[in-house]
Amino acid sequence: MVEQPIRNRQVSGSSPLVGSILSITYSYSSLPAEFIATFVRWAPEPTFCYPSPVPRAFLIDTDTASDDAVALIMALRAPDVRVVAITTVAGNVPVLQSTRNALYTVELCGANVPVYTGADKPLLRTYQNATWFHGRDGLGDHNYPSPHQSAEGVHAVDAIIETVEANPGIVIVTLAPLTNLALALAKKPEIVAKVGRCVVMGGAPCCEGNVTPSAEYNIWVDPEAARIVMHSGLPVELVGWHLCRGDAVVREDDIARILGFNNPLAKFAIECNSHARHAYKVQTREDGIALPDPVAMAIALDPSIGTNWSEHYVDVETQSELTRGMTVVDRLNVAADERNQAVWAPLLEKKRRAKVCWTIDNRRWKEALFSALR
Q: Which is nearest to 291 in space by CA: 329, 236, 237, 254?
């Protein structure tokens, strides 16, 4: 005979007698039906105790410029996310400016998150910034005040290692050249096993780039670092530059809606992207604000915003100047063919494919943006 508890519930405000009765396991067949009916009538109404959901831990690596700042706001304001650390790297702006911008954004959100300064140049290449796109200070040159908080004394590379080890299953979101992460992997490759997701804003999978015909800026700046990350075995989710274009662009009506929220974060999000908006129109002839880093953050927060995904081996071109930084996606899954095995051997041995996002739900992406800025 299978024994079952009468009421498998936590009862609040009951007498010791009732508590004792409820803690005993009975066989239903051994109790008179009249007793059960009477007991249920006078038993106090139960109070259910549910555990609070544990916030997801995020580590964000950024070269903080205008779109990075908006992505940081989205993460810092997400109710189910705990941003454990922000690490900065040279990219859009020099690393110290990146740190300053990250600290300013954190303070604007009223958050208390440590910021760690990292690599000031790529692994092997000459550093080339993107101030032509984001402005000299990365935030559209609006002369924002200096932050009150200072960066932590620990180097970003060590902070990445320590943060991952202390938070198994952590989500790493990279919005920048991958120099810091590559150095962390070189120093402590074992951290790969403790990363739950690694969302990489970077690359131009099977499409045109934004700094060369074949490469996106984050990968192009430090292709050797990107290659290390792609070969590391990390659970990479590649969110390419193409996803911020077309209907994903924040248009005039979207801008008006955001400014209508009439709060400092909404104003900052639009204002700091003014220089980038102009540069994007010169570059693509599309008018509006393209936000690749916030799109990646939206997907990090909710992967279902990505509507078309597939898993492939992804490598990065480091030898050719013509295609430097190209994210080469084995979209037809031919890497293991005999004619390709020698070139793709390092990735084939790892047997770890990257998840590549091809399309997103543009309505839901914008709703995620609006929600963060309200």
A: 254
Residue of 251, 321, 256 whose CA lies nearest to 280:
251
| Cα 314 from Cα 346, distance rounded (Å) | 11
How does DSSP assign 36-88, residue by residue?
A: HHHHHHHSPPP----PPPPPEEEEEEE--SHHHHHHHHHHHT-TTEEEEEEEE
Question: Among 136, 173, 139, 163, which Cα is nearest to 60's?
Answer: 173
Which residue, 207, 204, 198, 139, is CA-closest to 174? 198
The span from the first CA to the last CA of the chain, in angstroms, equals 58
Residue from 357, 351, 240, 242 nearest 310 by CA = 357
Q: What's the average pLDDT block by block, 10 residues per block, for the chain (374 residues)?
A: 38 38 39 50 53 86 98 98 98 98 98 98 98 98 97 98 98 98 98 98 97 98 98 98 97 98 98 97 96 98 98 97 97 96 93 96 98 97
Cβ proximity of 293 and 269 under 8 Å: no
Containing 330, the helix (H) or strand (E) segment is: none
Give residues with Cβ within 8 angstroms of 283, minimum separation 6: 133, 210
In one-letter notation, the amino acid at residue 74 is M
The count of residues in the chain is 374
Fold annotation for 56-373: Inosine-uridine Nucleoside N-ribohydrolase; Chain A (3.90.245)
Which tokens hold the place of 74? 């989205």
Helix (H, G, I), strand (E, B) or coil at 357: strand
CATH 3.90.245.10 in the chain, residues?
Answer: 56-373
| Amino acid letter, 49 | C
Dist. CA 38–CA 43, nearest whole Å = 9
- C-alpha dihedral sign at 84, 88, 89, 92: positive
Q: Are strands 306-312 and 314-316 parallel, antiparallel or unpaired?
A: unpaired
What is the sign of the dihedral through the CA atoms of 198, 272, 127 and 116?
negative
Contact 87, 159 (CB under 8 A): yes
- Cβ atoms of 237 and 198 closer than 8 Å: yes
